[in-house]
Amino acid sequence: MHLDDRDPFDLVLPPAVDIREVGMRDGLQLEAPLPLADKLAMLEALVATGVRRIEATSFVSPRAVPALADADQVAAELGRWSGVAFSALVANPRGAVRAVDAGVPDLEYVVSASDGHSRANAGRGTAEAVAAIGEIAGLASGAGGTLEVIIATAWDCPFDGRTPIARTVDVARAAVTAGADRLCLGDTIGTTTPMRVVRLLDAVRRVCPGVPVGVHFHDTRGTGQANALTAIQAGVTQLDSSVGGLGGCPFAPGASGNIATEELVYLLEESGVHTGIDLDAVLAAARVTERAVGRELPSSLYRAGGRSVPRGTEQAVAAS
Amino acid sequence: MHLDDRDPFDLVLPPAVDIREVGMRDGLQLEAPLPLADKLAMLEALVATGVRRIEATSFVSPRAVPALADADQVAAELGRWSGVAFSALVANPRGAVRAVDAGVPDLEYVVSASDGHSRANAGRGTAEAVAAIGEIAGLASGAGGTLEVIIATAWDCPFDGRTPIARTVDVARAAVTAGADRLCLGDTIGTTTPMRVVRLLDAVRRVCPGVPVGVHFHDTRGTGQANALTAIQAGVTQLDSSVGGLGGCPFAPGASGNIATEELVYLLEESGVHTGIDLDAVLAAARVTERAVGRELPSSLYRAGGRSVPRGTEQAVAAS
């Protein structure tokens, strides 16, 4: 408790968190397809940041996601980097087989908690998507990998509106029962806010004690970093972010994408939370990414030129 | 304390906060001068949001800030709106006299905690700026108004680097001793982060018990809303924000400005914190503002089209 200004407020944060870079997948999936060389240059720059987990691609229909149609070629190149755990997203058991065959047994499988998004995104309802978790978990573990179930539209759906907490909790419980090693709650359209973050995390953990629960926030409405900080205060240590904030929402043209890796790293490192990620290296990776996608990235920190306190002009403006 | 996932985390927020709209002053001060009619249209739209405090203009050198050279004309029109407390920023006693004479006795006076910014912004060092507080406080109270001292560069300075906490605390103490009714801590260049917010608030309150302390954040590096939420958790209930996030930093061209009113209202109202401000009305005011300044506003929420969960397309993307 706080709110009494006679006592200092204690902002309790963990000594370290574990960030997963999702720019190669969530960031690129809506872009025009990039040449493999550009993707490898991005990966090279991202590995150089010190990040320990990178979602490298997704094994999904090349017709639905042409930007990631080269998943096999990307996967074939991952052996050149050590010290980083690469994973891939899949949308069904067929994708899981492809990923495992390509040498990427650490999988993320997306299940939308809302039927509307599930049908639009994956061509089937939530129950049907949940039913495939066991098979995918078996494919991952059989290949020495792990399975994380990412619950999309965990808070809100662009088709069905607010997702009842009970729906998201049901998916979480079913995922763990079916063999998921970890969960991740996705704010797919960037609408959630801090109090709702806390409430859903609490509800999910009650039914899945001991299961690691990560968060995947979009910054579409300017709430992403506040949501991330709140989740971390609530004990979350696994967060997704994307270099430069790359990754729009297909349902909100022009909107910002994932929370920007450099903004999350800046916020946390300056608050004493170790990320293992070098901020200047992320900004360098953002430059590589910006050149590759050919358009301005949404990250405010990147556009402001980084961490450093800028040298000013002598313009007098009575600024505060 | 928290960080133990066996116990639910309790996000403690106050039932209400008091937002001051600074778009008319901090938002416009770097823009090309607007016609008075455009400013009155902005004010009309801002009053309609339900906000209870509006910083209407500043009485500073028209040479230094040509965009606000019409402060007297703006002040002369404020009587048409009731139920809103209008205030004005001043940079010295001369400005305070002008403001009081114009019928705006509720003043904000900016003192930079760092000498470098103080000299660039106001043509004199911090000590000299502090020495004027008593005279300005007397002018305000003599006219039935109040004085808030906004401590600019409270955390960082574009010229001097990090501002030692002791410097900011010294200004705070001197301001209250000299008659300031309230304080406001300004993150002038948008570099601070949550843990530093908590530490400075704690230090300032120790030396100024019982004095209301507000916060003024810029979103230049994507940390503004997280800083605001942290300050609120720490007991702050007075926050500055700007419609559409208008208001760049003169030392970081292209960077975002003040935290956006609509983003703060969205984050707080959805978290159960009453602001008295109607989100849709702020978005309407942002449209008025965007037309007036003739360029895209930085607010992510505004660009995403508001609060509502958008209706999607049928595009299948395996999005999370």
Automatic annotation (TrEMBL), chains A, B:
SUPFAM superfamilies: Aldolase (SSF51569). GO terms for biological process: ketone body biosynthetic process; L-leucine catabolic process. GO terms for molecular function: hydroxymethylglutaryl-CoA lyase activity; metal ion binding. The keyword Lyase applies. Keywords: Lyase, Metal-binding. Pfam families: HMGL-like (PF00682). InterPro entries: Aldolase_TIM (IPR013785), HMGL (IPR043594), PYR_CT (IPR000891). Coiled coil: none annotated. Residues 17-283 form the Pyruvate carboxyltransferase domain. It comes from the Bacteria. The keyword Lyase applies. Belongs to the HMG-CoA lyase family. This is Hydroxymethylglutaryl-CoA lyase. The lineage of its organism: Bacteria, Bacillati, Actinomycetota, Actinomycetes, Geodermatophilales.
